[in-house]
Amino acid sequence: MRLLLPSLTALLLVSTAQAQDLTAEVAHSWTSGGEAAAVKVISDAFTARGGTWVDWSVAGFESANAAYISRLLAGDPPTAKTAVAGPEVTELIAQGLMNDIDTAFHAAVPDGVVPQVVLDAITMDGKVYMAPTGMHAGSWMFYSMPVFEKAGITEAPTSWDEFFAAMDKIKAAGLVPIAWGGQSWQEGIVFHAVVLSTIGAEAFTKLYKDSDLSVIDTPEFAEAVNVFGRMRDYVDAGAPGRNWNDATAMVIRDEAGVQLLSDFIKGEFTTAGETPGIDYGCALTPSTDSLIFLADAFTFPKTGNADEDKAQALLAEAVLDPRVQADFSALKGSLPIRTDVDTSGLDACAQTAIELVKQDKIVPDAAMTLSPAINGGFKDAVGAFFADPAMTSEAFIEQYKAAFANG
Amino acid sequence: MVDQSGARTTASPPGRSKVTGRLRLPVAAMAALTPAWLIILLVYLGTTVWTVQISLTKSRMLPSSEFAGLSQYQRLFGTARWSNSIENVLTFGVVYVLGAMVVGLLLAIAIDRRVRFESAWRTMFLYPYALSFIVTGLMWQWLMNPEIGIQATARAAGLGWFTFDWTTRSDMAIYAVALAGIWQSAGLVMVLMLAGLRGIDADLWRATRIEGIPMWRTYLTIVLPQLGPSVATAFMLLTMGAVRTFDLVVALTNGGPGQSTEVPAKFIMDSLFARQDLGLATAGATVMLFTVMAVTIPILYARDIWTRRQNGRL
Amino acid sequence: MRDPFPATARGQRPQRLTTARIGLYAFLLIAALFFLLPAYVMIVTSFKSMGEIRSAQIFSLPQMLDWSYWLEAWSSACAGVNCNGVSVGFWNSVKITVPATILSVLLGAVTGYALSFWKPPGSKLLFAAITIGGFIPLQIFLFPMVRATAALGLYNSLAGIVLVHVVFGLPLTTLLFRNYYAAIPVELFKAARVDGAGFWRIFYALMLPLSLPMLVVAGLMQMTGIWNDFLLGLVFAGRDNLPMTVQLNNIVTTTTGQREYNVHMAATVLTALVPLVAYFVSGRWFVRGITAGSVKG
Fold this sequence. Notes:
The complex is a heterotrimer of chains A (about 400), B (about 325) and C (about 300).
Chain A: H1 8-16, E1 23-28, H2 33-48, E2 52-57, H3 61-73, E3 80-84, H4 87-94, H5 102-108, H6 116-122, E4 123-124, E5 127-128, E6 130-137, E7 140-144, H7 145-151, H8 160-172, E8 176-178, H9 184-208, H10 219-230, H11 244-252, E9 256-261, H12 266-271, E10 280-284, E11 291-299, H13 306-320, H14 322-332, H15 348-358, E12 362-364, H16 366-369, H17 372-387, H18 393-406
Parallel strand pairs in A: 1-2, 1-3, 8-9, 11-12
Antiparallel strand pairs in A: 3-11, 4-5, 6-11, 7-9, 7-10
Chain B: H1 2-8, H2 16-22, H3 27-55, H4 71-78, H5 80-112, H6 118-126, H7 133-144, H8 150-156, H9 173-198, H10 202-211, H11 215-226, H12 228-244, H13 247-252, H14 264-274, H15 278-313
Helix pairs in contact in B: 3-15, 4-15, 5-9, 5-12, 6-9, 9-12, 14-15
Chain C: H1 19-47, H2 50-55, H3 68-76, H4 90-118, H5 123-133, H6 142-151, H7 158-182, H8 186-194, H9 199-210, H10 212-228, H11 231-236, H12 244-252, H13 261-271, H14 273-293
């Protein structure tokens, strides 16, 4: 281990120079529009508590990770870093590189207000290591009201049969049924939403949390593959490689009927001046009664500096503050992690989601339970399958399964 | 200047090796090469050793020393994406290198024919080299998107038969990436070639005209061979670029549709930083490195023998 | 004595406006169309509002010439909680690019010179290693280099990032200069040797002046590469020295956040202004440089 991890002395040497009193250097990738505004809520709350916020923002997951891991290796980690609450962080915790915030967490959050699945994700060996900022829900369907009207669709479809019937109507009306972002990470989100709808929450957790591969062999999973494959007939020729926001723009322009993706796309409707319930609607993906959620959290590397440890605790406190949770989520388009915050300021779509959170009808996204390598393998398989109509379901399922083994 | 000094020393034996061979060890030259040696040994060789070493471990997010044998290589070759990447980079490399060379050369020849506003033309063809591909890649993505790009515009203008949808087709997307690559690099080749063209003796042109040799043959049989060093430099630069191609693909297709435009450098980058799979990334890099060596060393060796033979004959 | 830097083109003398000439200009125009198309879309997009971008066609002209996105990109575009546009890192980029370019070009010149003319033992091996080094994706160097610079105490410093650029620039600059010197008649070098000049004197008094044009060429290429670098600057430069491209990346790159295309376009062009101006200003030398190199190609 001596070879691999920076020695403690190096840690001490580098970081003592950096921090006085309660300065926190915060690494995050939330640099655009609403994201940046949401970060500002946290930084303001932190500053109000007497901290000094030093922003170290790097957009783009790969670049941010490259820079962050480099700093860990050089023995110069930032005070805090945002991450998906899950395996991305567990290796660092296991290596003893992270501080826990157990005391600060329990001081800030009363028992029972954070859903158990979330708690599980941020806890390791009985200690809380992460301060979640909010969660995004991935099993959404956004649709254009005018397009539905034009195509004669009165209500959002609640089963896949209804869904495809509706898509046929849109097609017949000469419009694009599904606004598709043909990038494998987006397709992965859609596929998992479909999987949830056919196999149900319990099997979903069994598969992606406990890696019980027998679920993949069930007819329900095969049905998910089938439904997902059928969607190819309802996308336009320009779909491959399309950014999600360009897809959203098609719904905003009322050229396309629906977009299946996470709730983060709501911001795009809002900035375009659209009102939920009038210009666009939101619903869970057909035949689904739960949410797939992905929690973002602050994580806290060991810096070997007592002042920075205090700053970390203070930052955790700021992040977990109910007011901050509500304001952050309103700007970021996410859901608060606590069920006891005042969410009246959030929009109609979020209200639906909050009800589900309160009823514990949420399942963790595979990114929170399985390694990034396995998740990468999923994306490769899903992207390849959607792009190639000639690929059989069997071949796809085999490749999808291999992702588990190869990760 | 050049001719004069050449004439002054024609009596001495040709071939540089003999000159240095006569002298004591060139100490100053060795000292001057020390930084290069240090960089090669410490950084390039050091990194290579490190890479190979890590590829034999179970490293995930951070380097680890837990020995894993050749299992990372097993995983690597068991991944369809890796073999696809290799295939794609070969197709891409051939189209991109040849395309950029041909376009660059044609542009250079055209500009060299005493056109007006030469510097304006030159800058027009060179500017893509200066722009970050994050955004110019998006431009190409838009232009090649059949719904909003060139195809849509042409069809709206009444050319219903016009089709340009490479980025959306698995069998054609890699050519779309190559096209954008050519757009980015052809200007650089043009500048290198243009300079080479300018070095060709004016008398040569006069002679070929008097002899009545057609222009295309002049270029093909007389000019092109004279451009040797420029062609070699451009070829090397483009090939290195092709092997390392990464941001071009990310910005344009992100590897899709499916895996039709995945390339090894992107595979390595993804594994390194997004998938926290250092072991797999280093295994990929090792395979890439040894492939490059297996191709480059024989070529360099052959070239060396060839040069020596030429000198011997002189 | 022939002028080694002919300023004018040497193709066949132009005739009157023949079909061939028309064809030539037609070819250039079509090529220019191909090359300028992305730039055109970029520029028109940078003047459109997001609503207009969403609704209008990509080739359409903006409804009005609104410079506000350019202003925003330069001085107030947000990246995280800092809203200072791409201008923030401008001087850092200059501070990194100037020394890194000069040093790496000089190193390439000296190395190429020693490899071409002096060939001390091991030269071929060294050149082969440098060539192969040019094929390795930079990213794989990242972690070992981080360790190395940290051990040297250069991590997170201007000196560190300059060193990293010099190291990674070695294959390119060496290749350029070695090929350049290979084209210079060896007799020139031998004459200087006969006159009793040593290694450094020949380099300084003969080769450097002779390779002035190539210095410009290699300098421009290195400058473009270093100026546009983002990842190395991000990792090695330290927070106080972050180059402009880090800010550009923060503005332009996003996965799940909004994309303000108009500001992105403007920011990209603004970030590239320095290399673009350099091409413009040094265009003549750029071409002449390689010209002299291939005098005896």
